[in-house]
């Protein structure tokens, strides 16, 4: 596994694979894997033992385990949100920064760090459901990935006079949705709708994030 994220979903650790490389096809089984969530915990009622996968013989109960089931070796571990093999850090001491390229709708809470490369004008809208205002920003991170973020109504009025182009901020929280390439030219396949739960902080500019990104293409002469 080259890149992955671990999320805590209803008390269970769910691994989302982002990138992986096939090392060997049709490889033999390694060790004696068992389903850790099918085993009993200290607070659950006794249940019939679950047969291990792959037809392997059942492991011996660990010390202190009852004869009615197997102990869970991972019961004392607390799942955490990680990227790769550990938390992704960035300059300035932030240990929970997630690359924009790793954002996905399965994450409940995330923090990205990026430079505002573009800030749109405040626009008014009106339809049968009501009226309001909105504006959008483009955020570029240290990995060279950019994403569009949009503010609506009270959030737009709150953040429009605060956020400045070319400054670096951390953005925590927001709703992710698939980007519309017709109106959004950022590289990320998602875009963010910032809301009242969003927290934005001015970050130290350590020059790790570029001010612009360019894609050069060859032009053939006629």
Mean pLDDT: 76
CATH architecture of the largest domain: Beta Barrel
* Radius of gyration, taken over Cα atoms and rounded to an integer in Å: 24 Å
Number of strands: 11
- Helix-and-strand structural type: mainly beta
Main β sheet profile: 8 strands, mixed
Q: What's the helical proportion of residues?
A: under 10%
Strand content: 25-35%
- Residue stretches low in confidence (pLDDT < 50, at least 5 long) are 50-56, 62-93
Q: Which shape, going by the Cα principal axes?
A: globular
Name of the CATH superfamily of the largest domain: Nucleic acid-binding proteins
Number of structural domains: 2
Question: Quick one: CATH class of the largest domain?
Answer: Mainly Beta
Report, as a whole number of angstroms, the end-to-end distance.
46 Å
SSE string: EEEEEEEHEEEE
Give your account of this protein's structure:
The chain is mainly β. The chain has two domains: 1-86, no CATH class; 89-202, Nucleic acid-binding proteins (OB fold (Dihydrolipoamide Acetyltransferase, E2P)), CATH 2.40.50.140. Helix content is 3%, strand content 30%. The chain is built from one helix and eleven strands; from the N terminus they run E-E-E-E-E-E-E-H-E-E-E-E. The strands form two sheets. Strands 4, 5, 6, 7, 8, 9, 10 and 11 form an eight-stranded mixed beta sheet that branches. A three-stranded antiparallel beta sheet has the order 2-1-3, with no helix packed on it. The model is unreliable at 50-56 and 62-93 (pLDDT under 50).
